[in-house]
Amino acid sequence: MAVVQTRNLTKIFKEGELGAVNNVDLETREGEFLVFLGPSGSGKTTLLRMIAGLETPTSGEILIGGKVVNNMTPRERRIAMVFQSYALYPHLTVYNNIAFPLKAQNVPKNVHKEKVEWAASLLGIQGLLKRKPRELSGGERQRVALARAIVREPSVFLLDEPLSNLDAKLRLSAREELERFHRRVGTTTIYVTHDQVEAMAMGDRIMVLNKGVVRQFATPKEVYDDPADTFVATFLGSPPMNLVENDDLIVGFRPEHFRLAEDVKEAKVPFKFKVENVEYLGAEFILSGLIMGGRLDGKKVVARLLLGHTYEVGATYDFAVPERQLKFFDRTTEKKTQARALAWA
Protein backbone atom coordinates (compact mmCIF):
# COMPACT_ATOMS: atom_id res chain seq x y z
CA MET A 1 0.00 0.00 0.00
CA ALA A 2 1.10 3.57 -0.61
CA VAL A 3 -0.09 7.13 -0.16
CA VAL A 4 -0.72 9.16 -3.33
CA GLN A 5 -0.16 12.92 -3.24
CA THR A 6 -0.39 15.73 -5.76
CA ARG A 7 0.91 19.25 -5.30
CA ASN A 8 -0.53 22.08 -7.42
CA LEU A 9 -1.08 19.58 -10.21
CA THR A 10 -2.17 21.25 -13.45
CA LYS A 11 -2.80 20.05 -17.00
CA ILE A 12 -3.39 22.52 -19.85
CA PHE A 13 -3.99 20.94 -23.25
CA LYS A 14 -4.14 24.16 -25.27
CA GLU A 15 -2.35 27.38 -24.42
CA GLY A 16 -4.70 30.19 -23.49
CA GLU A 17 -7.51 27.86 -22.46
CA LEU A 18 -8.66 26.91 -18.97
CA GLY A 19 -6.75 23.93 -17.69
CA ALA A 20 -8.35 20.49 -17.78
CA VAL A 21 -6.98 20.15 -14.23
CA ASN A 22 -6.13 23.22 -12.15
CA ASN A 23 -3.82 23.27 -9.11
CA VAL A 24 -5.12 20.07 -7.53
CA ASP A 25 -3.76 19.15 -4.10
CA LEU A 26 -4.68 15.80 -2.67
CA GLU A 27 -3.34 13.20 -0.29
CA THR A 28 -4.87 9.77 0.05
CA ARG A 29 -4.86 7.78 3.25
CA GLU A 30 -3.08 4.47 3.13
CA GLY A 31 -5.45 1.75 2.00
CA GLU A 32 -8.44 4.04 1.43
CA PHE A 33 -10.96 3.93 -1.42
CA LEU A 34 -10.97 7.45 -2.87
CA VAL A 35 -13.48 8.48 -5.53
CA PHE A 36 -13.06 11.24 -8.13
CA LEU A 37 -16.63 12.37 -8.93
CA GLY A 38 -17.78 14.87 -11.51
CA PRO A 39 -19.59 15.38 -14.82
CA SER A 40 -18.03 14.84 -18.24
CA GLY A 41 -15.23 17.34 -18.76
CA SER A 42 -14.61 17.84 -15.04
CA GLY A 43 -10.99 16.66 -15.27
CA LYS A 44 -11.36 13.48 -13.21
CA THR A 45 -9.98 11.08 -15.83
CA THR A 46 -7.18 13.48 -16.79
CA LEU A 47 -6.18 13.67 -13.12
CA LEU A 48 -6.19 9.87 -12.86
CA ARG A 49 -4.13 9.49 -16.04
CA MET A 50 -1.50 11.92 -14.73
CA ILE A 51 -1.20 9.87 -11.54
CA ALA A 52 -0.85 6.77 -13.71
CA GLY A 53 1.85 8.33 -15.88
CA LEU A 54 -0.28 8.29 -19.05
CA GLU A 55 -0.51 12.10 -19.20
CA THR A 56 2.31 14.54 -18.52
CA PRO A 57 1.45 17.38 -16.11
CA THR A 58 1.90 20.95 -17.28
CA SER A 59 3.05 21.78 -13.75
CA GLY A 60 2.99 20.39 -10.24
CA GLU A 61 4.18 17.20 -8.61
CA ILE A 62 2.89 13.66 -8.14
CA LEU A 63 4.17 11.55 -5.25
CA ILE A 64 3.55 7.86 -4.61
CA GLY A 65 4.82 6.45 -1.35
CA GLY A 66 6.54 9.77 -0.62
CA LYS A 67 8.58 9.69 -3.84
CA VAL A 68 8.16 12.17 -6.71
CA VAL A 69 7.21 10.09 -9.77
CA ASN A 70 6.72 12.74 -12.46
CA ASN A 71 9.57 11.33 -14.55
CA MET A 72 8.82 7.66 -13.88
CA THR A 73 7.08 5.36 -16.33
CA PRO A 74 3.75 3.77 -15.33
CA ARG A 75 5.55 0.49 -14.64
CA GLU A 76 8.07 2.19 -12.37
CA ARG A 77 5.26 3.78 -10.35
CA ARG A 78 3.99 0.34 -9.24
CA ILE A 79 0.41 1.18 -10.09
CA ALA A 80 -2.21 -0.92 -11.82
CA MET A 81 -5.02 0.60 -13.87
CA VAL A 82 -8.36 -0.84 -14.94
CA PHE A 83 -10.02 0.98 -17.84
CA GLN A 84 -13.63 1.42 -18.83
CA SER A 85 -13.14 -0.99 -21.75
CA TYR A 86 -11.22 -3.59 -19.65
CA ALA A 87 -8.78 -3.90 -22.63
CA LEU A 88 -8.57 -7.71 -22.54
CA TYR A 89 -6.69 -9.48 -25.33
CA PRO A 90 -9.41 -11.34 -27.31
CA HIS A 91 -7.06 -14.03 -28.68
CA LEU A 92 -5.71 -14.98 -25.24
CA THR A 93 -7.36 -17.16 -22.61
CA VAL A 94 -8.32 -15.70 -19.25
CA TYR A 95 -5.22 -17.38 -17.78
CA ASN A 96 -2.92 -15.71 -20.31
CA ASN A 97 -4.67 -12.35 -19.98
CA ILE A 98 -4.02 -12.41 -16.25
CA ALA A 99 -0.45 -13.62 -16.73
CA PHE A 100 0.39 -11.00 -19.36
CA PRO A 101 1.77 -8.36 -16.93
CA LEU A 102 4.03 -11.01 -15.40
CA LYS A 103 5.51 -11.77 -18.80
CA ALA A 104 5.98 -8.06 -19.47
CA GLN A 105 7.86 -7.73 -16.17
CA ASN A 106 10.01 -10.80 -16.92
CA VAL A 107 8.71 -12.64 -13.87
CA PRO A 108 10.03 -16.24 -13.99
CA LYS A 109 7.55 -18.50 -15.77
CA ASN A 110 7.49 -21.02 -12.94
CA VAL A 111 5.91 -18.32 -10.72
CA HIS A 112 3.10 -17.48 -13.17
CA LYS A 113 0.76 -20.35 -12.29
CA GLU A 114 0.88 -19.63 -8.57
CA LYS A 115 0.25 -15.90 -9.01
CA VAL A 116 -2.51 -16.29 -11.62
CA GLU A 117 -4.37 -18.83 -9.48
CA TRP A 118 -3.98 -16.61 -6.41
CA ALA A 119 -5.44 -13.57 -8.25
CA ALA A 120 -8.22 -15.67 -9.81
CA SER A 121 -9.20 -17.12 -6.44
CA LEU A 122 -9.49 -13.65 -4.90
CA LEU A 123 -12.08 -12.77 -7.54
CA GLY A 124 -13.79 -16.15 -7.82
CA ILE A 125 -12.90 -16.82 -11.46
CA GLN A 126 -10.84 -20.00 -11.09
CA GLY A 127 -13.29 -21.83 -13.35
CA LEU A 128 -12.88 -19.33 -16.21
CA LEU A 129 -9.12 -19.60 -16.80
CA LYS A 130 -9.41 -21.61 -20.02
CA ARG A 131 -12.04 -19.39 -21.63
CA LYS A 132 -11.58 -16.50 -24.08
CA PRO A 133 -13.00 -13.02 -23.32
CA ARG A 134 -15.81 -13.48 -25.89
CA GLU A 135 -17.14 -16.35 -23.76
CA LEU A 136 -17.50 -14.16 -20.66
CA SER A 137 -20.24 -11.88 -19.36
CA GLY A 138 -19.54 -8.21 -18.70
CA GLY A 139 -19.16 -8.83 -14.98
CA GLU A 140 -16.75 -11.72 -15.58
CA ARG A 141 -14.64 -9.57 -17.90
CA GLN A 142 -14.47 -6.92 -15.21
CA ARG A 143 -13.18 -9.47 -12.70
CA VAL A 144 -10.59 -10.71 -15.18
CA ALA A 145 -9.38 -7.12 -15.66
CA LEU A 146 -9.10 -6.74 -11.88
CA ALA A 147 -7.23 -10.05 -11.58
CA ARG A 148 -4.80 -8.90 -14.27
CA ALA A 149 -4.23 -5.73 -12.26
CA ILE A 150 -3.81 -7.40 -8.87
CA VAL A 151 -1.41 -10.10 -10.12
CA ARG A 152 1.30 -7.45 -10.20
CA GLU A 153 0.70 -6.70 -6.51
CA PRO A 154 0.73 -2.93 -7.12
CA SER A 155 0.96 -0.29 -4.42
CA VAL A 156 -1.99 1.65 -5.90
CA PHE A 157 -5.06 0.70 -7.96
CA LEU A 158 -6.49 3.22 -10.42
CA LEU A 159 -9.97 2.45 -11.77
CA ASP A 160 -11.45 4.54 -14.60
CA GLU A 161 -15.24 4.05 -14.71
CA PRO A 162 -14.88 0.25 -14.80
CA LEU A 163 -18.63 -0.39 -14.37
CA SER A 164 -20.01 2.06 -16.93
CA ASN A 165 -20.56 -0.60 -19.63
CA LEU A 166 -22.71 -2.81 -17.40
CA ASP A 167 -26.48 -2.73 -17.06
CA ALA A 168 -28.04 -1.49 -13.81
CA LYS A 169 -28.47 -4.90 -12.16
CA LEU A 170 -24.98 -6.05 -13.07
CA ARG A 171 -23.51 -2.72 -11.94
CA LEU A 172 -24.89 -3.33 -8.46
CA SER A 173 -23.43 -6.82 -8.16
CA ALA A 174 -20.10 -5.69 -9.68
CA ARG A 175 -19.98 -2.77 -7.24
CA GLU A 176 -20.45 -5.16 -4.34
CA GLU A 177 -17.70 -7.36 -5.81
CA LEU A 178 -15.33 -4.38 -5.96
CA GLU A 179 -16.08 -3.43 -2.36
CA ARG A 180 -15.39 -6.98 -1.16
CA PHE A 181 -12.22 -7.06 -3.24
CA HIS A 182 -10.96 -3.82 -1.71
CA ARG A 183 -11.70 -4.94 1.83
CA ARG A 184 -9.81 -8.18 1.20
CA VAL A 185 -6.77 -6.66 -0.50
CA GLY A 186 -6.63 -3.27 1.28
CA THR A 187 -4.62 -1.54 -1.45
CA THR A 188 -4.98 2.23 -1.86
CA THR A 189 -7.55 2.69 -4.64
CA ILE A 190 -8.60 5.71 -6.68
CA TYR A 191 -11.86 5.28 -8.57
CA VAL A 192 -13.26 7.61 -11.25
CA THR A 193 -17.00 7.88 -11.85
CA HIS A 194 -19.73 10.31 -12.86
CA ASP A 195 -22.27 8.21 -10.94
CA GLN A 196 -23.10 9.75 -7.56
CA VAL A 197 -24.61 6.49 -6.26
CA GLU A 198 -21.35 4.63 -6.90
CA ALA A 199 -19.39 7.42 -5.26
CA MET A 200 -21.58 7.57 -2.16
CA ALA A 201 -21.75 3.79 -1.77
CA MET A 202 -18.09 2.97 -2.32
CA GLY A 203 -15.92 5.92 -1.36
CA ASP A 204 -14.21 6.43 1.98
CA ARG A 205 -13.84 9.99 0.71
CA ILE A 206 -15.05 11.78 -2.41
CA MET A 207 -13.25 14.48 -4.40
CA VAL A 208 -15.88 16.41 -6.36
CA LEU A 209 -14.47 18.12 -9.46
CA ASN A 210 -15.94 20.51 -11.99
CA LYS A 211 -14.12 22.20 -14.89
CA GLY A 212 -10.78 21.02 -13.54
CA VAL A 213 -11.28 22.49 -10.08
CA VAL A 214 -11.77 20.62 -6.80
CA ARG A 215 -15.09 21.78 -5.37
CA GLN A 216 -15.06 19.60 -2.24
CA PHE A 217 -12.95 16.80 -0.77
CA ALA A 218 -14.62 15.02 2.14
CA THR A 219 -16.48 11.92 3.29
CA PRO A 220 -19.70 10.98 1.45
CA LYS A 221 -21.78 12.11 4.43
CA GLU A 222 -20.03 15.50 4.62
CA VAL A 223 -20.35 16.09 0.88
CA TYR A 224 -24.06 15.27 0.92
CA ASP A 225 -25.07 16.86 4.22
CA ASP A 226 -22.83 19.93 4.09
CA PRO A 227 -22.03 20.83 0.46
CA ALA A 228 -19.28 23.40 -0.04
CA ASP A 229 -21.07 25.25 -2.85
CA THR A 230 -24.15 25.20 -5.03
CA PHE A 231 -22.51 22.93 -7.63
CA VAL A 232 -21.90 20.19 -5.08
CA ALA A 233 -25.36 20.76 -3.60
CA THR A 234 -27.08 20.10 -6.91
CA PHE A 235 -24.72 17.48 -8.34
CA LEU A 236 -25.40 15.04 -5.51
CA GLY A 237 -28.89 13.91 -4.68
CA SER A 238 -31.80 12.66 -6.76
CA PRO A 239 -33.77 14.85 -6.99
CA PRO A 240 -31.05 17.44 -6.29
CA MET A 241 -31.13 20.02 -3.51
CA ASN A 242 -33.64 22.84 -3.95
CA LEU A 243 -31.96 26.24 -4.25
CA VAL A 244 -34.02 29.42 -3.89
CA GLU A 245 -32.74 32.99 -3.86
CA ASN A 246 -33.69 35.32 -1.02
CA ASP A 247 -32.12 38.79 -0.71
CA ASP A 248 -28.33 38.28 -0.79
CA LEU A 249 -28.49 34.54 -0.03
CA ILE A 250 -29.27 31.30 -1.78
CA VAL A 251 -31.14 28.94 0.52
CA GLY A 252 -30.84 25.20 0.00
CA PHE A 253 -32.88 22.30 1.34
CA ARG A 254 -33.09 18.72 0.14
CA PRO A 255 -36.39 17.28 -1.17
CA GLU A 256 -36.45 14.58 1.52
CA HIS A 257 -36.52 17.22 4.26
CA PHE A 258 -40.03 18.38 3.33
CA ARG A 259 -42.75 17.42 5.78
CA LEU A 260 -46.37 18.30 6.34
CA ALA A 261 -46.15 21.26 8.73
CA GLU A 262 -48.20 19.48 11.41
CA ASP A 263 -45.68 16.61 11.49
CA VAL A 264 -42.63 18.81 12.23
CA LYS A 265 -42.32 19.27 15.99
CA GLU A 266 -38.94 21.07 16.01
CA ALA A 267 -38.08 24.61 14.90
CA LYS A 268 -39.24 24.90 11.32
CA VAL A 269 -39.78 27.14 8.31
CA PRO A 270 -43.43 26.78 7.19
CA PHE A 271 -44.85 27.63 3.77
CA LYS A 272 -47.73 26.78 1.48
CA PHE A 273 -46.94 24.46 -1.41
CA LYS A 274 -49.07 24.13 -4.56
CA VAL A 275 -48.62 20.77 -6.27
CA GLU A 276 -48.05 20.85 -10.05
CA ASN A 277 -46.98 17.25 -10.60
CA VAL A 278 -47.02 13.98 -8.63
CA GLU A 279 -44.77 10.99 -9.35
CA TYR A 280 -45.48 7.74 -7.53
CA LEU A 281 -42.30 5.66 -7.18
CA GLY A 282 -43.54 2.77 -5.08
CA ALA A 283 -42.00 3.67 -1.73
CA GLU A 284 -42.31 7.44 -2.10
CA PHE A 285 -43.85 10.38 -3.90
CA ILE A 286 -41.92 13.05 -5.82
CA LEU A 287 -43.90 16.28 -5.85
CA SER A 288 -42.96 19.32 -7.91
CA GLY A 289 -44.72 22.61 -7.34
CA LEU A 290 -44.62 26.22 -6.21
CA ILE A 291 -44.18 28.03 -2.91
CA MET A 292 -47.21 30.29 -2.46
CA GLY A 293 -47.10 33.69 -0.78
CA GLY A 294 -44.36 35.72 0.91
CA ARG A 295 -41.03 36.75 -0.62
CA LEU A 296 -40.57 33.31 -2.14
CA ASP A 297 -43.90 33.36 -3.90
CA GLY A 298 -43.72 31.44 -7.16
CA LYS A 299 -40.41 29.69 -6.44
CA LYS A 300 -40.40 26.18 -7.92
CA VAL A 301 -39.26 23.37 -5.59
CA VAL A 302 -39.34 19.57 -5.41
CA ALA A 303 -40.35 17.43 -2.43
CA ARG A 304 -39.67 13.73 -1.79
CA LEU A 305 -42.17 12.24 0.64
CA LEU A 306 -42.71 8.76 2.00
CA LEU A 307 -46.08 7.11 1.64
CA GLY A 308 -48.71 7.84 4.26
CA HIS A 309 -50.64 10.71 2.68
CA THR A 310 -52.09 11.27 -0.76
CA TYR A 311 -51.41 14.40 -2.81
CA GLU A 312 -53.41 15.86 -5.68
CA VAL A 313 -52.26 18.02 -8.57
CA GLY A 314 -53.57 21.56 -8.13
CA ALA A 315 -54.04 21.26 -4.36
CA THR A 316 -52.16 23.42 -1.84
CA TYR A 317 -50.66 21.95 1.33
CA ASP A 318 -49.04 23.37 4.46
CA PHE A 319 -45.46 22.10 4.35
CA ALA A 320 -42.39 22.87 6.44
CA VAL A 321 -38.62 22.24 6.48
CA PRO A 322 -36.75 21.88 9.81
CA GLU A 323 -34.53 24.92 10.31
CA ARG A 324 -31.48 22.73 11.01
CA GLN A 325 -31.74 21.29 7.48
CA LEU A 326 -31.42 24.66 5.71
CA LYS A 327 -28.13 25.41 3.92
CA PHE A 328 -27.03 28.91 2.96
CA PHE A 329 -24.85 30.03 0.05
CA ASP A 330 -23.53 33.43 -0.97
CA ARG A 331 -25.29 34.65 -4.13
CA THR A 332 -22.09 36.08 -5.60
CA THR A 333 -19.59 33.28 -4.92
CA GLU A 334 -22.18 30.47 -4.61
CA LYS A 335 -20.08 29.10 -1.75
CA LYS A 336 -21.38 27.98 1.62
CA THR A 337 -21.82 30.75 4.15
CA GLN A 338 -22.57 30.72 7.86
CA ALA A 339 -25.22 33.43 7.44
CA ARG A 340 -28.55 32.50 8.98
CA ALA A 341 -30.69 35.54 8.21
CA LEU A 342 -33.73 34.45 6.26
CA ALA A 343 -37.06 36.21 5.69
CA TRP A 344 -39.68 33.81 4.39
CA ALA A 345 -42.76 35.80 5.27
Please state the overall shape, judged from the principal axes of the Cα atoms.
elongated
Radius of gyration: 24 Å
Strand content: 25-35%
Broad structural category: alpha+beta
Helical fraction: 10-25%
The strands making up the biggest β-sheet line up spatially as 6-7-8-3-9-10
Q: Largest sheet at a glance? A: 6 strands, mixed
Order of helices and strands: EEEHEEEHHHEHEHEEHHEEEEEEEE
Total beta strands: 18
Could you tell me how far the N terminus lies from the C terminus, measured between alpha carbons in angstroms? Answer: 56 Å
Write down the overall mean pLDDT: 89
Question: Please, how many helices?
Answer: 8
Low-confidence stretches: none
Short description:
The protein is of the alpha+beta class and 345 residues long. The protein is 24% helix and 31% strand.
What do these coordinates show?
With 345 residues, the protein is α+β, with helices and mostly antiparallel strands. It has eight helices and 18 strands. It has helices at 44-52, 94-104, 109-122, 138-150, 168-185, 196-202, 220-225, 230-235, and strands at 4-11, 21-27, 33-37, 59-64, 67-68, 79-82, 156-160, 188-193, 205-210, 213-218, 242-246, 249-253, 259-260, 268-280, 284-292, 300-306, 316-322, 327-330. The strands form four sheets. The chain has a six-stranded mixed beta sheet, with helices on both faces. Strands 13-17-14-15-16 form a five-stranded antiparallel beta sheet, with no helix packed on it. β9 (205-210) and β10 (213-218) form a beta hairpin. α2 crosses α3. The N and C termini lie far apart (56 Å).
